[in-house]
Amino acid sequence: MGSLIILVPLLLLAWLFWTQRRRQQQMRDAQAQIAVGDEISTTSGLLGTLVELNDEEGTVEVSPGVRMRFVRRAIVPRSQVGAPSESSRTEQSETSEQSETTESVDLNKHDEGTTPETKAE
């Protein structure tokens, strides 16, 4: 029983280190595939086209004539940005079905004889 108490946390730690190394390797491989002209995403979610790239940084065109510089580690190929998982797609379809069945509310309507509150009052 005593060895089990020590073994379980060690196995958990080993699994955590293994998954982290695998994730880092996948990120390195993805960043090695980046080339000028590719559609990319940044780690913050900005989408654009890579127009310049060197060892330290890359320049991303987010709109015609609008260029932004990013550290190379923050740039990920667009193909690496995952599609929504099956469970989130199911949740989105359920939410859209619920929104179709709710009745609309007139936001301009208020009770007679009262004025709506504003932040200025």
Distance between the termini: 68 Å
Poorly predicted regions: 83-88
Mean pLDDT: 78
- Given the structure, what is the number of helices? 2
What does the main sheet amount to?
5 strands, antiparallel
Strand order of the largest sheet: 4-3-2-1-5
Task: Tally the beta strands.
Answer: 5
- Radius of gyration equals 25 Å
Task: Offer a concise description of the structure.
By secondary structure, the protein is α+β, with helices and mostly antiparallel strands. The protein contains two helices and five strands.
Verbal overview:
Helix content is 39%, strand content 22%. The chain contains two helices and five strands. A hairpin with a 3-residue loop joins strand 2 and strand 3. It has a five-stranded antiparallel sheet.
Features:
5 strands, alpha+beta, 121 residues, single chain
Write the SSE topology:
Blueprint: H1 2-32, E1 39-42, E2 47-53, E3 57-63, E4 66-71, E5 75-77, H2 86-101
Antiparallel strand pairs: 1-2, 1-5, 2-3, 3-4
